[in-house]
Amino acid sequence: MRLVDTHCHLDFERFDADRDAVVARAAEAGVARIIVPAISLDNCPAVLALAEQYPGVYAAVGVHPNSTAEWRADWVDALRDFARRPKVVAIGEIGLDYYWDKSLPAVQQTAFSAQLALAAELELPAIIHNREASADLLRLLAASPLAGRAGAGVLHSFSADWATAQAALDLGFYLGFTGPVTFKQADELRAIAARVPLDRILVETDAPFLAPQARRGRRNEPAYVTYVAERIAALRGMDTAVFAAHTTANAERLFGLA
Question: What SS3 state is found at 90?
Fold first, then answer.
């Protein structure tokens, strides 16, 4: 079985003690490639260094909504320079987050729109964070130059309703699913995962967060994306290896992975 973990914060401190072993365990589980998104300008260099260090690791560069409080227009220039480095496959993690009160909504929206425009300029997909902001997020996506492009990006760790899912799909985006799709009370999310077109679905961990039910309460890691694939495959009545092959092909197509 071959899988791509399309969203993992491998640069975070919780992996400092055993990062090599984490990458090795992922490979043993069939997860040969991992995409690591930045969350701020400050950690872009660390993400890029991991992509250089590990053959199967790729990077995305961007400013997470919770890191946008001091947003300046010239940050786009810095991101553009980072994005030209080898193995950068996306602009992200970007988006809107109205749950944590760390940046004003208007500032988040300005930063999000600017980074969407950068993704379009560089012909890279966007990795998008959405927490309790679906209406504004969809409005800005529809107004962005990415709207309608094949492979516009992915709404990562999808947790909204089906209407949001359908709107995002209509705009050209993929949907990524993480550990919560395995949680006992996640029937609505599972129903959405079962309906997403097979050529527009991705599997992720968002490690070290959101460990699947079988590992809940522990640090998440890329090897555990197998639990996500197994659960969604079962929902769809598919063999796990066949479903995994589809999600891998989707990731390769969206992110231009070799």
Answer: strand
Ordered domains of the chain (ranges, CATH): 3-255 (3.20.20.140)
Rounded CA separation 33/71 (Å): 31
Instruction: Quote the CA–CA distance of 127 and 142 in Å, as a whole number.
Output: 15
Q: What is the CA radius of gyration of the chain?
A: 17
Q: Is 213 helix (H, G, I), strand (E, B) or coil?
A: helix
Q: Give the pLDDT of residue 258.
A: 74
All residue ranges of the chain with pLDDT < 50 are none
Q: Facing residues of 37 across strands?
A: 60
Tokens of 226: 């197998």
User: Using alpha carbons only, what angle is made at residue 61 by residues 58 and 62, rounded to the nearest 5 degrees?
Assistant: 150
What's this model's pTM, rounded to 2 decimal places? 0.97
- The answer to whether 37 and 127 have CB atoms below 8 angstroms apart is yes
Counts of helices then strands in the chain (DSSP H, E) = 9, 8
Torsion of CA 52, 66, 210, 5, to 10 degrees: -30
The confidence score (pLDDT) of residue 51 equals 98
- What is the reported pLDDT for 58? 98
